[in-house]
């Protein structure tokens, strides 16, 4: 069910579209959030908290009157802010005007758009509305909230097409309505889905949960030793809530995880209460880590994490928290599909062909047999870890710098570690226990990071791009290619 | 033994007075720390033998750092190549790093009070990665200025968007 709706081919000097307003239900949804916050605050304040004297409710008329007053005030504020919010998709920029007393006009040039996410918080989802959140490379994301879902999708497609440098007259937006649960539509080619059962099993067996439980057990043991139950309670309650939070975030936020491919790029859709749909620009991926914890080895589960520059900066209160998880849990086959989707023909598994020399076991007694690495001009792949096994793939075209480290014991054994620094700090790429003599002969080749950047970019395609060509095309050519929807996660 | 950290004849070394600056810097940091640790232990252990143990350890550590400063400074070398800067340093924990000019975000030249006594400055290449450690700790002010200008020029010529 896709209705194509060509953009009006207006002359260049006239605005392409008239000013639009968010959906009229917007103040209601925002008011609902306010009401919910008040109710939670009140219930925290007045619910019995164990002591008898604290439980004294004010007269009910006061209470309800107060709530009604605040709700009405919030609704009025919401209505006014809705009344004065306009957005205009102009010839060169998106304008968002807000505020009655303090007027604010945000202008977002299309060529600055890095990515566009469509997020549906629970309240908005009940009314079929969605929020459009625009990534312009800085921490704060301009937002248009709330639009009907089809308009939000249309706006995303329009912004992305413009960011890619498509002329306004050529943009054709597909006003489409996806499935209510997954947000997918017929345009998407589904690559990976994670069933809920796998998510729950994975969340219950992850090493993070195991560490939390072990920590809890130690705390309980300490409390028993000290002999005062309050000490134990003081530790157990936050720990239990942390464990619950971990499991629920892994299950709720990743619920119905789907990786799909469409013409505009890769896209990840996930979330139970808040459905978020965002795409993954392979150009911005700095490094990938596939990991497998102790229990997951039995279950054959793997997790894929991404290092995307700028994404590790999260702003919790603004619900812009960005997840670095590409695949929450899946089989090896699914992990392969994920990696192939970003970097086709990376051959990351075949690349880890160098075993660490057996003398490396003196220094890495537990992980020694597992240590491996390899490289082919385009990628460096390493394998290390004992309790949590990690495969790390980094394209040399994305490396910021590389370094070699050798301690006194390593020097005796003729070993060295190779580290590759990438933008961000989610994935620390390291190859441990390498044969120092072998590395010394290959180091000159590995050090050619600048050439790798220009000639061997895995996302540019098989045809090597010459430096002169790139320089001629200017930075716009690269940036336009970069402007794809971004992967992010919000609740 | 290994050729990983071999330094060719074309590599640049730090000026000889960099060792003196590093020695004074080590003294300026270590001595107050040693004194504080000694007094702290003295207060806890009622001026008994643990205090003297800590004092001895502090003095030994300071002397060790001051003595090693010369060798460490001589171990440091850097090489400006066409497309990247190579740095190698370290006595026990040896380190080699390569930073391409194209990834450089900025160049920071710093000169603290101790370094200024000898007319020295440090030059740091800042990349998008926090972990990149490309700092030349002490060169003469003129070298630092020249290095900065060359690095910026090379960075501009070779920069590509992230």
Write the layout of secondary structure elements.
The complex is a heterodimer of chains A (491) and B (162).
Chain A lengths: L1 E5 L19 H21 L13 H24 L2 E4 L3 E6 L5 E6 L5 E6 L1 H5 L2 E7 L7 E6 H15 L8 E5 L12 E5 L2 H10 L1 H20 L2 H25 L4 E5 L2 E6 L4 E6 L4 E8 L1 H6 L2 E7 L16 E6 L1 H11 L5 H4 L2 E2 L16 E4 L3 E6 L4 E7 L5 E6 L1 H6 L1 E7 L7 E7 H11 L2 H7 L11 H16 L9
Antiparallel strand pairs in A: 1-8, 2-3, 3-4, 5-6, 5-12, 6-7, 9-10, 10-11, 11-12, 13-14, 13-19, 14-15, 16-17, 17-18, 18-19, 20-21, 21-22
Helix pairs in contact in A: 1-2, 5-7, 6-7
Chain B lengths: L11 E2 L3 H28 L4 H27 L1 E4 L3 E6 L4 E7 L5 E5 L2 H5 L2 E7 L7 E7 H18 L4
Helix pairs in contact in B: 1-2
Task: Write a compact overview of the structure shown.
The complex is a heterodimer of chains A (491) and B (162). By secondary structure, chain A is of the alpha+beta class. Chain A has three domains: 2-180, no CATH class; 195-253, no CATH class; 344-458, PH-domain like (Roll).
């Amino acid at each position: 069910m896709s209705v194509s709706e060509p953009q009006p081919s207006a002359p260049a000097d006239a605005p392409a579209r008239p000013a639009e307003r968010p959906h009229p239900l917007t103040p209601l949804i925002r008011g609902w959030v306010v009401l919910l916050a008040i109710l939670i605050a009140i219930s925290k304040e007045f619910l019995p908290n164990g002591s008898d004297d604290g439980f004294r409710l004010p007269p009910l008329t006061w209470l309800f009157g107060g709530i009604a007053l605040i709700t009405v005030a919030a609704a009025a504020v919401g209505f006014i802010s809705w009344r004065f919010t306009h957005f205009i998709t102009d010839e060169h920029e998106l304008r968002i005007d807000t505020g009655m007393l303090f007027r604010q006009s945000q202008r977002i040039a299309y060529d600055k758009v890095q990515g566009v996410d469509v997020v549906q918080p629970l309240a908005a989802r009940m009314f079929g509305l969605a929020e459009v959140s625009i990534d312009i490379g800085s921490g704060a994301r301009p937002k248009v909230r709330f639009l009907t879902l089809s308009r939000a999708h249309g706006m995303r497609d329009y912004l992305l097409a413009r960011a890619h440098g498509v002329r306004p007259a050529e943009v054709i937006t597909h006003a489409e309505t996806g499935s209510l649960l997954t947000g997918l539509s017929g345009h998407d080619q589904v690559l990976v889905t994670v069933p809920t059962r796998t998510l729950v099993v994975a969340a219950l067996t992850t090493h993070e949960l195991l560490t939390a439980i072990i920590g809890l057990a130690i705390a309980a043991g300490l409390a028993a030793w000290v002999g005062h139950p309050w000490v134990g309670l003081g530790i157990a309650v936050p720990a239990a809530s942390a464990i619950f939070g971990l499991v629920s975030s892994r299950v709720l936020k990743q619920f119905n995880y789907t990786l799909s491919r469409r013409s505009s790029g890769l896209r990840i859709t996930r979330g139970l209460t808040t459905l978020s749909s965002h795409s993954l620009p392979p150009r911005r991926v700095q490094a990938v880590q596939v990991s497998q914890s102790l229990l997951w080895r039995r279950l054959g589960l793997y997790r894929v994490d991404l290092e995307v520059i700028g994404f590790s900066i999260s702003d919790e209160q603004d619900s812009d928290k960005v997840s670095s998880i590409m695949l929450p849990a899946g089989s090896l086959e699914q992990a392969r599909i994920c990696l192939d989707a970003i970097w086709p023909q990376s051959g990351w598994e075949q690349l880890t062909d160098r075993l660490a020399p057996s003398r490396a076991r003196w220094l890495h007694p537990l992980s020694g047999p597992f240590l491996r690495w390899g490289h082919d001009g385009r990628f460096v792949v390493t394998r290390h870890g004992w309790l949590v096994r990690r495969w790390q793939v980094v394209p040399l075209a994305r490396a910021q710098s590389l370094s070699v480290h050798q301690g006194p014991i390593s020097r005796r054994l003729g070993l060295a570690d190779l580290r590759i620094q990438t933008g961000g700090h989610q994935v620390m790429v390291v190859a441990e226990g390498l044969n120092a003599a072998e590395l010394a002969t290959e180091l000159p080749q590995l050090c050619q990071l600048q050439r790798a950047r220009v000639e061997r970019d895995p996302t540019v395609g098989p045809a090597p791009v010459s430096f002169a060509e790139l320089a001629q095309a200017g930075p716009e050519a690269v940036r336009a290619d970069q402007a794809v929807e971004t992967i992010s996660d919000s609740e | 033994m290994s050729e990983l950290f071999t330094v060719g004849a074309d590599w640049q070394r730090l000026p000889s007075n960099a060792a003196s600056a590093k020695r004074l810097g080590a003294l300026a940091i270590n001595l107050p720390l040693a004194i504080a640790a000694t007094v702290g232990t003295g207060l806890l252990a009622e001026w008994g033998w643990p205090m003297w143990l800590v004092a001895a350890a502090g003095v030994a550590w300071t002397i060790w750092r001051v003595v090693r400063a010369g060798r460490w400074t001589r171990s440091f070398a850097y090489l400006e190549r066409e497309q990247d800067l190579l740095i190698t340093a370290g006595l026990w924990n040896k380190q080699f790093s390569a930073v391409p000019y194209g990834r450089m975000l900025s160049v920071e030249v710093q000169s603290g009070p101790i370094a200024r006594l000898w007319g020295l400055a440090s030059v740091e290449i800042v990349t998008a990665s926090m972990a990149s450690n490309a700092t030349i700790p002490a060169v003469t002010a003129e070298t630092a200025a020249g290095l900065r200008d060359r690095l910026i020029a090379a960075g501009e010529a070779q920069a590509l968007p992230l």
